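Progress report, Aim 2. The chain analyzed during this reporting quarter is listed below.
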Amino acid sequence: MSRMPGIANPPSRLLAQALVVGGALLMVAPLYFMFVFATHSRGAIFASPPPLLPGARTLDNLRILLQALPFWRNVGWSLYVACASALLTLLLCSMAGYAFAMFRFRLRRALFLLVLGTLLVPQFMNMIPTFMVMDALDWINQPRALYVPGAASAFGIVFMRQYISSSVPRDVIEAARLDGCGEFTIYLRIVVPLIGPALGTLGLISFIASWNNFLMPLIVLRSPGMYTVPLALRSLQSPTDTQWGALMVGSAIATLPLLAMYVLYSRRLVDGLTAGAVK
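Predicted structure tokens for the chain:
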């Protein structure tokens, strides 16, 4: 007797579910242990076996962290840089994406291919040129050096161009031009309301990337009071005397905003990434 189409073999389905659950546990395990270790002393963390349940040293570890670093100031700088990066990226990338999607101009295809080509360049290859430019502008140890250079990202421009091409009707743009609307008015009053999901997705991606960025702060920041959270936590590490409990507390605090954003906006993120592809 032949099987009905679309009905999966139960053993295969159970195996697939087991693999998914096992992969999820492997992904969550480091995060779980980070929060557990944040509640234990350094000696307990490196005990054999290591602790599997939360302890009672959270406040002690937090006190050590605040004595070693101006941590709340570091968090404030990270928030400022991440928000500024997200807002500037949304402005520049959406405008560039609108231009590539709706304008016809000379060398348009060549310029877009050039933007695509920059995606192939590894980030570490930009370290020396970026430092030289920031030094020439006297932006060393300035937060604007963290969000201005990468604001018009190639990924953001390509993403917005593809979304606008598939989601904004060209007839509406042409009708607005015939009615005498300027391009900036069309962009603000027609394009921006139609690309809300894409703006939310790109803003979230930009915020997370800036919040987790370690390489650029390492290059341009000099004062511990100006450090972002990843660089500040790295400064806690020492070859001989690393306060691992304090480091885990700082890492847990730095992770909480990202976890909150994931819980609140994960569905919107997926919708924004896929909406342009199905319209």
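Residues 145 and 244 are 30 Å apart (CA to CA). The chain is about 70% helix and 0% strand. These observations will guide the mutagenesis work planned for the next reporting period.
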